[in-house]
Design brief:
heterodimer, A: 381 residues, FAD/NAD(P)-binding domain, six-stranded mixed β-sheet, 9 helices, B: mainly beta, Ubiquitin-like (UB roll), five-stranded mixed β-sheet, globular
Amino acid sequence: MKAKIVIIGAGISGAGIAYNLANKGMKDIVVFDASYLTSGATGRCGAGIRQQWSSKMNCILAKKSVDFFETAQEVLEYPRSVEFKQEGYLIVATTKEEDLQFTENVKLQQSLGIPARKCTKAEALEIVPHLNKDAFISATFCPTDGHLNPFTMTEAYYLAAKRMGVKFFFNEEVTEIVVNDNKIEKVITNKRTVETAMVVNAAGGHSKEIGDMAGIDIPVYSENHEILVTEPVEKIQGPMVISFSLNIYCQQVPHGSFIMGRSTADQVRGHDVGSTHEFLDEMAKTAVHILPPLGDLRVVRQWGGSYNNSPDRQPIISDCSELPGFYLACGFSGHGFMFAPMTGLLLSEMIMGEKTSIDIKELHMDRFKNSDFTTYERNVV
Amino acid sequence: MRITEHPILTFEKKAKLQFVFDGNEVYGYEGDTIASALHAMGVKKLSHSIHLKRPRGFYCAIGNCASCNMIVDEKPNVRTCVTLLKEGMVVKTQLNKGDLYD
Protein backbone atom coordinates (compact mmCIF):
# COMPACT_ATOMS: atom_id res chain seq x y z
CA MET A 1 0.00 0.00 0.00
CA LYS A 2 1.11 3.54 -0.79
CA ALA A 3 0.12 6.75 0.95
CA LYS A 4 0.93 10.41 0.51
CA ILE A 5 0.98 10.78 4.28
CA VAL A 6 0.45 8.57 7.31
CA ILE A 7 -1.08 10.07 10.44
CA ILE A 8 -0.46 8.09 13.60
CA GLY A 9 -3.23 8.51 16.14
CA ALA A 10 -7.01 8.92 15.73
CA GLY A 11 -7.73 11.23 18.59
CA ILE A 12 -8.97 14.77 18.07
CA SER A 13 -5.53 15.89 16.77
CA GLY A 14 -5.11 13.12 14.20
CA ALA A 15 -8.70 13.38 13.01
CA GLY A 16 -8.42 17.19 12.83
CA ILE A 17 -5.16 17.08 10.88
CA ALA A 18 -6.60 14.49 8.47
CA TYR A 19 -9.66 16.67 7.87
CA ASN A 20 -7.61 19.82 7.28
CA LEU A 21 -5.23 18.10 4.86
CA ALA A 22 -8.09 16.55 2.89
CA ASN A 23 -9.87 19.89 2.87
CA LYS A 24 -6.80 21.42 1.23
CA GLY A 25 -7.00 18.80 -1.49
CA MET A 26 -4.44 16.25 -0.37
CA LYS A 27 -5.21 12.69 -1.52
CA ASP A 28 -4.12 9.30 -0.16
CA ILE A 29 -4.21 10.22 3.52
CA VAL A 30 -4.07 7.25 5.87
CA VAL A 31 -4.70 7.31 9.62
CA PHE A 32 -3.71 4.47 11.94
CA ASP A 33 -4.79 4.02 15.51
CA ALA A 34 -3.67 1.21 17.79
CA SER A 35 -7.18 1.19 19.26
CA TYR A 36 -10.43 2.99 18.37
CA LEU A 37 -11.43 6.60 17.62
CA THR A 38 -10.88 8.77 20.77
CA SER A 39 -9.51 5.78 22.70
CA GLY A 40 -6.60 7.73 24.18
CA ALA A 41 -6.39 11.12 25.84
CA THR A 42 -9.23 12.64 23.77
CA GLY A 43 -11.90 10.31 25.08
CA ARG A 44 -10.55 10.57 28.61
CA CYS A 45 -10.22 14.34 28.83
CA GLY A 46 -12.17 16.77 30.99
CA ALA A 47 -13.99 18.17 27.93
CA GLY A 48 -13.22 21.76 28.89
CA ILE A 49 -12.62 24.56 26.38
CA ARG A 50 -10.60 27.42 27.85
CA GLN A 51 -9.03 30.60 26.50
CA GLN A 52 -7.67 31.94 29.78
CA TRP A 53 -3.95 31.18 29.60
CA SER A 54 -0.81 32.83 30.85
CA SER A 55 1.20 32.34 27.65
CA LYS A 56 0.38 34.37 24.54
CA MET A 57 0.67 31.38 22.22
CA ASN A 58 -1.78 29.27 24.19
CA CYS A 59 -4.23 32.21 24.28
CA ILE A 60 -4.10 32.59 20.51
CA LEU A 61 -4.43 28.86 19.84
CA ALA A 62 -7.40 28.63 22.22
CA LYS A 63 -9.17 31.75 20.93
CA LYS A 64 -8.94 30.71 17.29
CA SER A 65 -9.98 27.17 18.18
CA VAL A 66 -13.09 28.47 19.97
CA ASP A 67 -13.93 30.48 16.84
CA PHE A 68 -13.89 27.19 14.93
CA PHE A 69 -15.81 25.17 17.52
CA GLU A 70 -18.62 27.74 17.33
CA THR A 71 -19.22 26.85 13.68
CA ALA A 72 -17.86 23.28 13.67
CA GLN A 73 -21.21 21.57 13.31
CA GLU A 74 -22.10 23.48 10.10
CA VAL A 75 -18.60 23.53 8.64
CA LEU A 76 -18.12 19.79 9.14
CA GLU A 77 -21.75 19.07 8.18
CA TYR A 78 -22.17 16.91 11.26
CA PRO A 79 -25.71 15.50 11.51
CA ARG A 80 -25.91 15.87 15.30
CA SER A 81 -24.99 18.57 17.78
CA VAL A 82 -21.33 18.63 18.80
CA GLU A 83 -22.63 19.86 22.19
CA PHE A 84 -20.59 23.02 22.58
CA LYS A 85 -21.89 24.76 25.71
CA GLN A 86 -20.36 28.22 26.23
CA GLU A 87 -21.09 29.15 29.80
CA GLY A 88 -17.61 30.17 30.74
CA TYR A 89 -14.71 29.24 32.97
CA LEU A 90 -14.48 30.79 36.41
CA ILE A 91 -10.88 30.64 37.60
CA VAL A 92 -10.58 31.40 41.28
CA ALA A 93 -7.51 32.91 42.92
CA THR A 94 -6.77 31.77 46.46
CA THR A 95 -3.50 33.60 47.10
CA LYS A 96 -2.20 37.15 46.66
CA GLU A 97 0.33 35.86 44.09
CA GLU A 98 -2.40 34.21 42.07
CA ASP A 99 -4.52 37.33 42.23
CA LEU A 100 -1.64 39.42 40.81
CA GLN A 101 -0.82 36.80 38.19
CA PHE A 102 -4.46 36.69 37.08
CA THR A 103 -4.55 40.47 36.67
CA GLU A 104 -1.61 40.15 34.30
CA ASN A 105 -3.21 37.17 32.53
CA VAL A 106 -6.46 39.06 31.94
CA LYS A 107 -4.54 42.02 30.46
CA LEU A 108 -2.82 39.67 28.03
CA GLN A 109 -6.04 37.82 27.21
CA GLN A 110 -7.98 41.04 26.58
CA SER A 111 -5.20 42.37 24.34
CA LEU A 112 -5.74 39.27 22.18
CA GLY A 113 -9.50 39.76 21.94
CA ILE A 114 -10.45 37.18 24.56
CA PRO A 115 -13.47 38.45 26.57
CA ALA A 116 -12.02 37.51 29.98
CA ARG A 117 -12.45 39.80 32.98
CA LYS A 118 -11.34 40.05 36.57
CA CYS A 119 -14.11 39.45 39.15
CA THR A 120 -14.42 40.42 42.77
CA LYS A 121 -15.49 37.75 45.21
CA ALA A 122 -19.08 39.10 45.13
CA GLU A 123 -19.16 39.01 41.32
CA ALA A 124 -17.81 35.47 41.28
CA LEU A 125 -20.50 34.39 43.75
CA GLU A 126 -23.13 35.80 41.42
CA ILE A 127 -21.79 33.60 38.62
CA VAL A 128 -21.47 30.47 40.78
CA PRO A 129 -23.56 30.98 43.94
CA HIS A 130 -22.62 27.70 45.61
CA LEU A 131 -18.89 28.55 45.77
CA ASN A 132 -17.44 28.53 49.27
CA LYS A 133 -16.89 32.27 49.83
CA ASP A 134 -14.05 31.57 52.25
CA ALA A 135 -12.13 29.43 49.76
CA PHE A 136 -10.96 32.18 47.38
CA ILE A 137 -10.16 35.89 47.17
CA SER A 138 -10.94 36.84 43.58
CA ALA A 139 -11.56 35.26 40.20
CA THR A 140 -11.41 35.69 36.46
CA PHE A 141 -14.24 34.80 34.12
CA CYS A 142 -14.43 34.27 30.39
CA PRO A 143 -18.01 33.74 29.19
CA THR A 144 -17.11 32.14 25.85
CA ASP A 145 -15.11 29.30 27.42
CA GLY A 146 -17.05 26.14 28.06
CA HIS A 147 -17.67 22.47 27.52
CA LEU A 148 -17.53 20.42 24.33
CA ASN A 149 -18.26 16.73 23.82
CA PRO A 150 -14.96 15.06 22.82
CA PHE A 151 -16.70 12.09 21.21
CA THR A 152 -19.08 14.04 18.97
CA MET A 153 -16.41 16.61 18.07
CA THR A 154 -13.88 13.96 17.07
CA GLU A 155 -16.51 12.02 15.16
CA ALA A 156 -17.46 15.20 13.31
CA TYR A 157 -13.85 15.55 12.08
CA TYR A 158 -13.65 11.83 11.38
CA LEU A 159 -16.81 11.68 9.27
CA ALA A 160 -15.88 14.83 7.34
CA ALA A 161 -12.39 13.47 6.64
CA LYS A 162 -13.79 10.10 5.57
CA ARG A 163 -16.21 11.76 3.15
CA MET A 164 -13.21 13.38 1.49
CA GLY A 165 -11.48 10.05 1.08
CA VAL A 166 -9.25 9.77 4.16
CA LYS A 167 -8.72 6.11 5.07
CA PHE A 168 -8.85 5.24 8.78
CA PHE A 169 -7.53 1.94 10.14
CA PHE A 170 -8.41 1.12 13.73
CA ASN A 171 -6.93 -1.54 16.01
CA GLU A 172 -3.84 -1.33 13.87
CA GLU A 173 -0.61 -0.45 15.60
CA VAL A 174 2.38 1.18 13.96
CA THR A 175 5.40 -0.91 14.89
CA GLU A 176 8.16 0.58 12.74
CA ILE A 177 9.03 3.67 10.75
CA VAL A 178 11.66 2.88 8.15
CA VAL A 179 14.10 5.75 7.54
CA ASN A 180 16.92 5.57 5.01
CA ASP A 181 19.37 8.33 4.09
CA ASN A 182 17.42 10.71 6.28
CA LYS A 183 14.23 10.02 4.32
CA ILE A 184 11.07 8.34 5.52
CA GLU A 185 10.40 5.31 3.33
CA LYS A 186 7.82 3.14 5.02
CA VAL A 187 5.49 2.81 7.92
CA ILE A 188 4.99 -0.76 9.09
CA THR A 189 2.01 -1.77 11.21
CA ASN A 190 1.07 -5.11 12.71
CA LYS A 191 -1.05 -5.70 9.58
CA ARG A 192 0.64 -4.05 6.59
CA THR A 193 3.47 -2.02 5.11
CA VAL A 194 2.78 1.44 3.74
CA GLU A 195 5.15 3.28 1.44
CA THR A 196 5.13 6.94 2.35
CA ALA A 197 7.48 9.89 2.61
CA MET A 198 5.51 11.77 5.27
CA VAL A 199 4.40 10.87 8.79
CA VAL A 200 2.45 12.89 11.34
CA ASN A 201 2.99 11.94 14.95
CA ALA A 202 -0.33 12.61 16.67
CA ALA A 203 -0.03 9.66 19.00
CA GLY A 204 -0.83 11.58 22.19
CA GLY A 205 0.47 9.66 25.20
CA HIS A 206 2.60 7.48 22.92
CA SER A 207 4.17 10.22 20.81
CA LYS A 208 7.60 9.80 22.42
CA GLU A 209 7.70 6.14 21.34
CA ILE A 210 6.63 7.10 17.81
CA GLY A 211 9.46 9.65 17.76
CA ASP A 212 11.88 6.93 18.84
CA MET A 213 10.73 4.75 15.92
CA ALA A 214 11.82 7.52 13.56
CA GLY A 215 15.02 8.10 15.51
CA ILE A 216 13.83 11.46 16.80
CA ASP A 217 14.14 12.22 20.50
CA ILE A 218 11.07 14.28 21.41
CA PRO A 219 11.37 15.93 24.83
CA VAL A 220 7.93 14.87 26.07
CA TYR A 221 6.72 12.41 28.67
CA SER A 222 3.34 11.03 29.67
CA GLU A 223 1.72 10.97 33.06
CA ASN A 224 -1.63 9.77 34.33
CA HIS A 225 -4.21 12.38 35.30
CA GLU A 226 -7.33 11.08 36.98
CA ILE A 227 -10.93 12.21 36.70
CA LEU A 228 -14.22 11.28 38.29
CA VAL A 229 -17.85 11.79 37.39
CA THR A 230 -20.87 12.01 39.69
CA GLU A 231 -24.49 11.02 39.30
CA PRO A 232 -26.54 13.61 37.37
CA VAL A 233 -28.62 16.28 39.10
CA GLU A 234 -30.56 19.28 37.84
CA LYS A 235 -28.34 22.09 36.59
CA ILE A 236 -26.86 24.35 39.26
CA GLN A 237 -23.52 25.25 37.70
CA GLY A 238 -22.99 26.82 34.29
CA PRO A 239 -19.25 27.49 34.17
CA MET A 240 -16.24 25.28 34.77
CA VAL A 241 -14.78 26.19 38.16
CA ILE A 242 -11.02 25.87 38.30
CA SER A 243 -8.22 26.61 40.73
CA PHE A 244 -4.52 26.05 40.10
CA SER A 245 -3.50 26.55 43.72
CA LEU A 246 -6.20 24.19 45.07
CA ASN A 247 -5.56 21.84 42.16
CA ILE A 248 -9.06 21.27 40.80
CA TYR A 249 -11.24 21.70 37.75
CA CYS A 250 -14.93 20.91 38.07
CA GLN A 251 -17.76 21.30 35.63
CA GLN A 252 -21.39 20.23 35.41
CA VAL A 253 -21.86 18.72 31.97
CA PRO A 254 -25.11 19.14 29.99
CA HIS A 255 -26.35 15.71 31.11
CA GLY A 256 -26.20 16.91 34.75
CA SER A 257 -23.18 15.00 36.02
CA PHE A 258 -20.22 16.80 37.55
CA ILE A 259 -16.85 15.96 36.02
CA MET A 260 -13.80 16.89 38.04
CA GLY A 261 -10.09 16.27 38.02
CA ARG A 262 -6.84 17.22 39.71
CA SER A 263 -3.22 16.28 39.24
CA THR A 264 -1.49 13.89 41.59
CA ALA A 265 1.72 14.99 43.27
CA ASP A 266 4.86 13.00 42.38
CA GLN A 267 3.05 11.12 39.64
CA VAL A 268 5.24 8.41 38.14
CA ARG A 269 5.88 8.98 34.44
CA GLY A 270 4.54 6.34 32.08
CA HIS A 271 1.48 4.99 30.34
CA ASP A 272 -0.54 3.90 33.36
CA VAL A 273 -4.12 5.21 33.13
CA GLY A 274 -5.48 3.46 36.20
CA SER A 275 -7.62 4.79 39.02
CA THR A 276 -6.61 5.20 42.65
CA HIS A 277 -8.47 5.60 45.91
CA GLU A 278 -5.98 8.33 46.86
CA PHE A 279 -7.26 10.41 43.98
CA LEU A 280 -10.88 9.78 44.94
CA ASP A 281 -10.12 10.85 48.49
CA GLU A 282 -8.19 14.04 47.62
CA MET A 283 -10.58 14.98 44.79
CA ALA A 284 -13.63 14.67 47.03
CA LYS A 285 -12.02 16.78 49.76
CA THR A 286 -10.99 19.51 47.33
CA ALA A 287 -14.36 19.59 45.56
CA VAL A 288 -16.36 19.80 48.78
CA HIS A 289 -14.04 22.51 50.10
CA ILE A 290 -14.59 24.81 47.14
CA LEU A 291 -18.12 23.71 46.09
CA PRO A 292 -19.74 22.41 49.32
CA PRO A 293 -23.13 21.18 47.95
CA LEU A 294 -21.30 18.62 45.81
CA GLY A 295 -20.72 16.61 48.97
CA ASP A 296 -24.26 15.21 48.60
CA LEU A 297 -23.46 13.61 45.25
CA ARG A 298 -22.42 10.04 44.59
CA VAL A 299 -19.42 9.25 42.44
CA VAL A 300 -20.44 6.88 39.69
CA ARG A 301 -17.14 6.34 37.89
CA GLN A 302 -13.49 7.36 37.78
CA TRP A 303 -10.80 6.91 35.16
CA GLY A 304 -7.39 8.13 34.09
CA GLY A 305 -5.81 9.47 30.92
CA SER A 306 -2.41 10.59 29.72
CA TYR A 307 -1.15 14.15 29.73
CA ASN A 308 1.69 14.30 27.21
CA ASN A 309 3.82 17.00 28.79
CA SER A 310 6.32 19.24 27.05
CA PRO A 311 9.04 21.07 29.01
CA ASP A 312 7.22 24.44 28.79
CA ARG A 313 3.66 23.05 28.87
CA GLN A 314 2.98 24.44 25.42
CA PRO A 315 2.26 22.17 22.46
CA ILE A 316 4.78 21.02 19.90
CA ILE A 317 3.21 21.76 16.49
CA SER A 318 6.19 21.43 14.27
CA ASP A 319 8.13 19.87 11.46
CA CYS A 320 11.41 18.20 12.25
CA SER A 321 14.80 19.73 11.45
CA GLU A 322 16.51 16.33 11.66
CA LEU A 323 14.03 14.38 9.53
CA PRO A 324 12.21 15.94 6.57
CA GLY A 325 8.62 14.71 6.24
CA PHE A 326 8.22 14.00 9.96
CA TYR A 327 5.63 16.23 11.61
CA LEU A 328 4.74 16.57 15.26
CA ALA A 329 1.48 17.32 17.05
CA CYS A 330 2.26 16.38 20.61
CA GLY A 331 3.23 17.64 24.06
CA PHE A 332 -0.15 19.29 24.56
CA SER A 333 0.25 18.94 28.32
CA GLY A 334 -3.40 18.14 28.90
CA HIS A 335 -4.91 20.57 26.39
CA GLY A 336 -4.81 18.90 23.01
CA PHE A 337 -8.57 18.64 22.76
CA MET A 338 -9.28 22.35 23.06
CA PHE A 339 -6.46 23.35 20.66
CA ALA A 340 -7.31 20.75 18.00
CA PRO A 341 -8.80 23.07 15.33
CA MET A 342 -5.58 25.11 15.28
CA THR A 343 -3.40 22.02 15.46
CA GLY A 344 -5.13 20.69 12.35
CA LEU A 345 -5.05 23.99 10.49
CA LEU A 346 -1.45 24.92 11.28
CA LEU A 347 0.03 21.52 10.64
CA SER A 348 -1.85 21.13 7.36
CA GLU A 349 -0.59 24.53 6.23
CA MET A 350 2.96 23.56 7.16
CA ILE A 351 2.69 20.20 5.37
CA MET A 352 1.22 21.79 2.21
CA GLY A 353 4.05 24.31 2.20
CA GLU A 354 1.76 27.26 2.81
CA LYS A 355 2.44 30.21 5.09
CA THR A 356 0.93 29.35 8.48
CA SER A 357 -2.04 31.45 9.70
CA ILE A 358 -0.02 32.55 12.71
CA ASP A 359 3.71 32.52 13.36
CA ILE A 360 4.39 29.29 15.23
CA LYS A 361 8.16 29.41 15.61
CA GLU A 362 7.50 29.29 19.35
CA LEU A 363 5.84 25.89 18.97
CA HIS A 364 8.71 24.30 17.05
CA MET A 365 10.47 21.41 18.72
CA ASP A 366 13.78 23.20 18.23
CA ARG A 367 12.84 25.70 20.94
CA PHE A 368 14.04 23.15 23.49
CA LYS A 369 17.51 23.00 21.96
CA ASN A 370 18.26 26.28 23.68
CA SER A 371 17.83 25.68 27.36
CA ASP A 372 16.73 29.31 27.80
CA PHE A 373 13.23 29.09 26.34
CA THR A 374 11.44 31.78 28.25
CA THR A 375 7.74 31.10 28.19
CA TYR A 376 6.24 28.64 30.62
CA GLU A 377 2.53 27.99 30.84
CA ARG A 378 1.61 28.27 34.51
CA ASN A 379 -2.13 27.85 34.15
CA VAL A 380 -2.23 24.07 34.14
CA VAL A 381 -4.10 21.74 36.50
CA MET B 1 -48.41 -8.30 49.39
CA ARG B 2 -46.49 -9.77 52.28
CA ILE B 3 -45.72 -13.41 53.08
CA THR B 4 -47.51 -14.42 56.25
CA GLU B 5 -47.11 -18.17 56.15
CA HIS B 6 -44.02 -20.12 55.13
CA PRO B 7 -43.12 -23.81 55.60
CA ILE B 8 -39.81 -23.05 57.30
CA LEU B 9 -39.59 -19.38 58.23
CA THR B 10 -41.78 -17.52 60.63
CA PHE B 11 -42.63 -13.85 60.31
CA GLU B 12 -43.43 -12.17 63.57
CA LYS B 13 -45.59 -9.10 63.31
CA LYS B 14 -43.42 -6.00 63.80
CA ALA B 15 -44.35 -2.48 64.89
CA LYS B 16 -46.19 -0.27 62.40
CA LEU B 17 -44.35 2.83 61.13
CA GLN B 18 -46.36 5.77 59.83
CA PHE B 19 -44.92 7.79 56.95
CA VAL B 20 -46.09 10.15 54.25
CA PHE B 21 -46.01 9.15 50.58
CA ASP B 22 -46.86 11.85 48.04
CA GLY B 23 -49.04 13.61 50.61
CA ASN B 24 -50.86 10.55 51.91
CA GLU B 25 -50.49 9.06 55.41
CA VAL B 26 -49.46 5.44 54.93
CA TYR B 27 -47.63 2.81 56.96
CA GLY B 28 -45.06 0.07 56.73
CA TYR B 29 -43.41 -2.13 59.33
CA GLU B 30 -40.23 -1.94 61.29
CA GLY B 31 -37.45 -3.53 59.25
CA ASP B 32 -38.93 -2.37 55.95
CA THR B 33 -36.89 -0.33 53.55
CA ILE B 34 -38.83 2.57 52.06
CA ALA B 35 -39.12 0.69 48.77
CA SER B 36 -40.29 -2.56 50.40
CA ALA B 37 -43.00 -0.69 52.32
CA LEU B 38 -44.16 0.99 49.10
CA HIS B 39 -44.04 -2.31 47.20
CA ALA B 40 -46.17 -3.98 49.86
CA MET B 41 -48.71 -1.18 49.37
CA GLY B 42 -48.79 -1.94 45.66
CA VAL B 43 -46.78 1.11 44.59
CA LYS B 44 -44.85 -0.03 41.53
CA LYS B 45 -43.70 3.29 40.09
CA LEU B 46 -40.79 4.65 42.11
CA SER B 47 -39.04 7.00 39.70
CA HIS B 48 -38.87 8.09 36.07
CA SER B 49 -36.42 7.66 33.23
CA ILE B 50 -34.32 10.78 32.71
CA HIS B 51 -35.22 11.68 29.13
CA LEU B 52 -38.62 10.18 28.30
CA LYS B 53 -39.95 10.20 31.90
CA ARG B 54 -41.13 6.62 31.61
CA PRO B 55 -41.97 4.85 34.87
CA ARG B 56 -39.17 3.08 36.71
CA GLY B 57 -39.75 0.55 39.46
CA PHE B 58 -38.07 -1.78 41.95
CA TYR B 59 -35.09 -3.16 40.04
CA CYS B 60 -31.71 -4.05 41.53
CA ALA B 61 -32.80 -3.78 45.17
CA ILE B 62 -29.19 -3.37 46.32
CA GLY B 63 -28.67 0.37 45.86
CA ASN B 64 -26.82 0.27 42.56
CA CYS B 65 -29.21 1.07 39.76
CA ALA B 66 -30.90 4.36 40.78
CA SER B 67 -34.29 3.04 39.63
CA CYS B 68 -35.79 3.63 43.10
CA ASN B 69 -34.46 7.18 43.61
CA MET B 70 -36.98 9.31 45.51
CA ILE B 71 -37.09 12.48 47.55
CA VAL B 72 -36.93 11.58 51.23
CA ASP B 73 -37.22 14.32 53.84
CA GLU B 74 -36.42 16.87 51.09
CA LYS B 75 -33.28 15.03 50.00
CA PRO B 76 -33.29 13.97 46.31
CA ASN B 77 -31.85 10.78 44.79
CA VAL B 78 -32.27 8.67 47.94
CA ARG B 79 -31.87 4.98 47.17
CA THR B 80 -35.13 3.87 48.77
CA CYS B 81 -34.39 0.16 48.29
CA VAL B 82 -31.55 0.30 50.80
CA THR B 83 -32.84 3.05 53.10
CA LEU B 84 -34.63 1.78 56.20
CA LEU B 85 -38.07 3.19 56.81
CA LYS B 86 -38.40 5.47 59.81
CA GLU B 87 -41.47 6.80 61.60
CA GLY B 88 -42.64 10.12 60.15
CA MET B 89 -40.55 10.08 56.97
CA VAL B 90 -41.83 12.23 54.11
CA VAL B 91 -41.34 10.38 50.82
CA LYS B 92 -42.04 11.97 47.46
CA THR B 93 -41.88 10.75 43.88
CA GLN B 94 -39.04 12.54 42.11
CA LEU B 95 -39.87 14.02 38.70
CA ASN B 96 -36.46 15.35 37.67
CA LYS B 97 -32.78 14.52 38.12
CA GLY B 98 -32.88 15.94 41.63
CA ASP B 99 -32.37 19.47 42.91
CA LEU B 100 -29.10 19.66 44.78
CA TYR B 101 -30.58 22.19 47.12
CA ASP B 102 -34.05 23.69 47.38
